[in-house]
Amino acid sequence: MISAWESLHFATLELVRSTPIKQRLVSAYRRHLESIAQDQLPGEVRESFDKLMCSLRGVKPLRGEDVVSASVRKMSIQQADDCAAQVVEIFGITCRALLNSARASAAVVQLHAADREPEVALDSDSFEVPSLIASH
């Protein structure tokens, strides 16, 4: 099963292609966004994702057309651009949330044992200095 992060990543890659924005948006939805369950997303993006999905499925289709094609067809270029930007924003927030949770759950490596005896401090008399270096 592909994670929400991977689906958003692939959708973002779909959105940067050179085809028209409406075509990219429909393709990103069909190939990657449609399969994302809201419970796979971080809490801070669920509302934005829900609004995005409503935008992409909000228009009743004509005969022979699906709901996403109809919704994107009715959008202005600016609205399609805004939806694409929202996908990228959701992806960015999801990445940060995953990174923060990975950092929080990372194991702490103990470099020094707490019960270890303290080291003896060494002074300069403890070391031999070669005579060539000492003469300068």
Architecture overview:
The chain has 136 residues and is mainly α. It has one domain (4-105). The chain contains six helices and no strands. The protein has helices at 4-15, 21-33, 43-56, 67-74, 77-105, 131-134. α2 packs antiparallel against α4. It is elongated and about 95 Å long. The model has no long low-confidence stretch (mean pLDDT 85).
How many DSSP E strands?
0
Judged by helices, strands and strand pairing, the structural class is mainly alpha
The helix tally amounts to 6
Query: What's the structural domain tally?
Result: 1
Helix-residue proportion: 55-70%
Topology:
Elements: H1 4-15, H2 21-33, H3 43-56, H4 67-74, H5 77-105, H6 131-134
Helix pairs in contact: 1-2, 1-5, 2-4, 3-5
Features:
59% helix, mainly alpha, 136 residues, single chain, elongated
Summed up:
It is built from six helices and no strands.
